[in-house]
């Protein structure tokens, strides 16, 4: 990352709005651990909340008849979230409503149908906390600026005096890929069929150049005629008449080139047919060529992994995704976005070596399985001990907690802690840009540029939501 010019800093402080949360009485609807985390954060901050696990239509209607000031629908299933949002709006038109939806098409439809609805995606909460460590070890959060600062980024660095906010222009954050790295990505494809296609193409080009040069120098032909005869040789049409009276060494060399043409043609044809008849997730040239150094390896191409890859590309970093499910829902989106995807298991150290992990800038494991993410971190640590590793964890996962206590495997991004607090703070009207952890503490970066330690929001707890 290029050195950032001096930029105004905002020290952690208090703002009139950030000092106290609203006293909205919230109804939280959902049926997974993320929804539990949202309700737990609201309860821990001492605000009234009621939690409903996958309620029926009648249950929602009865609950909305009580004193609920706002509703939060938290679900990883977009269609289920849409159904509850429409039900809430039908029962209590105009009530403040927050819904978690990833798909942009569904989100736009919800906003159009329910104007009083705020739509957020889990990627909005998690990606800044994952993106920061990929760029620099001391950055705990990196996000694009608000609408008034569309060309800038907001970074939060972890310093000895606490988190420090910096507003920097896009050019100061954007990374520049070296020309050497770009050329290596184009000339060292990962897949065997792609290498065969490239080898055949380069071999045919070399034979064509050699035959053209020999025709011009040895046979005395004009350059254009020599190139024409060389093309005839490549296509096995004919050889020039003058070649019959050429020296013996010319005949020997011509024999070798003809045999090479046969081999290179076979390689080129095999690679071309494979690329034309199968779904390819990597390319030979362009953004879908697998980078070989200075890149970020993202294991797990779900909603979070896809969005993280897109943000890394916007920063100018090379990126390659690893996904074991060949039918994953996000694969077509990754293909259209120009993201190279390799099929395989991220915990396979041989695959990590092929992906150039020792030369990578960072490795990020963001699959939905915490055990798989730990396996990726351990394998990556064995292959490249000095590389930055970031993993996604879920809640109070014992394996992740025990692994961290034994040795430093990676920077851990807790989905429920970060995502749950982000949704809770948004539902309570704080408008956080992001939430993140630093030195074991949870912070919120608000849209007015201040950083809040979420422990300052705690007060005498409201009744336990589980008791209702």
From TrEMBL:
<feature type="domain" description="RCK N-terminal">
    <location>
        <begin position="296"/>
        <end position="398"/>
    </location>
</feature>
<keyword id="KW-1133">Transmembrane helix</keyword>
<feature type="transmembrane region" description="Helical">
    <location>
        <begin position="248"/>
        <end position="273"/>
    </location>
</feature>
<keyword id="KW-0812">Transmembrane</keyword>
<dbReference type="InterPro" id="IPR050721">
    <property type="entry name" value="Trk_Ktr_HKT_K-transport"/>
</dbReference>
<protein>
    <submittedName>
        <fullName>NAD-binding protein</fullName>
    </submittedName>
</protein>
<dbReference type="InterPro" id="IPR003148">
    <property type="entry name" value="RCK_N"/>
</dbReference>
<dbReference type="Pfam" id="PF02254">
    <property type="entry name" value="TrkA_N"/>
</dbReference>
<dbReference type="InterPro" id="IPR036291">
    <property type="entry name" value="NAD(P)-bd_dom_sf"/>
</dbReference>
<feature type="transmembrane region" description="Helical">
    <location>
        <begin position="196"/>
        <end position="219"/>
    </location>
</feature>
<keyword id="KW-0472">Membrane</keyword>
